[in-house]
């Protein structure tokens, strides 16, 4: 840069910084619903997502999924998660993982003798388009929480559900001790 004025160097540095910022911003991209790629879905932060204790609804970018009546049944040696999941999307969905703040990862168990909605596949519990699957009913799919314990009077348990299409969904399951 011999023979270059101080002003010319400053302009060159600003131009390179601006170009680098534009290139970096282009690499992160956004999803179809204007969320950054890899973002998780949680109520209050994403338009099209609503929630309250025990439920969450996701209606964004072709996803129409609702989780209702989510209750963590906790005891001294673990627990279960009951809930109803409705897939009103036009594509199949899978529940692939359940995690909690009080006990780590849940164990998914498929519905007995079924190959349709509620069956355990290599991708998780199948949720066919237009189907409603109730977890925790006799003969249906279930979620075991082997390391979750009573929450000491807390009324909700933070739960993360990982879906194949919808991605990570956060909700607060109501707690039922016993």
Tell me what the structure shows.
- By secondary structure, the chain is mainly β.
- The protein is built from one helix and 13 strands.
- Strands 1, 2, 3, 4, 5, 6, 7, 8, 9, 10, 11, 12 and 13 form a 13-stranded mixed sheet that branches.
- Strand 8 (120-121) and strand 9 form a beta hairpin.
- The protein starts with 5 loop residues before the first helix and ends with a strand.
- Give the radius of gyration: 22 Å
Low-confidence stretches: 11-43
Count of separate DSSP helical elements: 1
Q: How big a fraction of the residues is strand?
A: 35-45%
Could you state the order of secondary-structure elements as H and E?
A: HEEEEEEEEEEEEE
- The strand count comes to 13
Q: Could you say which overall geometry the principal axes of the C-alpha atoms support?
A: globular
What's the pLDDT, averaged over the residues?
78
**How would a textbook summarize the main sheet?**
13 strands, mixed
Helix content: 10-25%
């Amino acid at each position: 840069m011999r023979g270059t004025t101080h002003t010319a160097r400053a302009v060159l540095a600003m131009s390179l910084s601006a170009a680098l910022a534009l290139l970096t911003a282009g690499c992160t991209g956004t999803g179809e619903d204007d969320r950054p790629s890899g973002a998780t879905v949680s109520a209050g932060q994403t338009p099209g997502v609503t929630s309250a204790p025990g439920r969450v609804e996701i209606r964004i970018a072709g996803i129409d999924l609702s989780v209702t009546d989510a209750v963590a049944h906790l005891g001294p040696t673990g627990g279960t998660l009951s809930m109803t999941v409705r897939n009103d999307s036009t594509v199949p969905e899978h529940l692939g993982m359940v995690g909690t703040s009080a006990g780590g990862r849940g164990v998914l168990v498929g519905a007995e003798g079924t190959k349709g909605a509620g069956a355990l596949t290599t991708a998780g519990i199948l949720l066919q388009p237009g189907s409603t699957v109730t977890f925790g009913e006799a003969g249906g799919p279930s979620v075991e929480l082997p390391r979750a314990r009573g929450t000491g009077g807390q009324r909700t348990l933070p739960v993360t559900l990982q879906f194949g299409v919808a991605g990570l969904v956060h909700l607060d399951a109501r707690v039922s001790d016993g």
